[in-house]
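Quarterly update from the structural biology core.
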Amino acid sequence: KEKRRVWRKLHLAVDATTHAVIAAEVSLETVADNEVLPTLLNPLRRKIKQVSADGAYDTKACHALLKKKGAKATIPPRKNAAPWEEGHPRNEAVT
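Predicted structure, tokenized:
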């Protein structure tokens, strides 16, 4: 009988200017990347200007969190993405 390996993922928040790691979180493979974003960003006391992330973070919850934090979201839309409500900044990236 083959044992299934348990994978862990390391999620990092990195200062784009200094390249310093400003937040880190470890999760199991079963945790979606977008679920970890609040855990990474909410404890930070610094101003967040921009967040660049992959398409796994293209969720309404992630975009809402970034808007609340005053951060620009640089997140590519997921494959086959549809536009959100009219006027949402993300719609510019959805074609």
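The chain has a mean pLDDT of 91.
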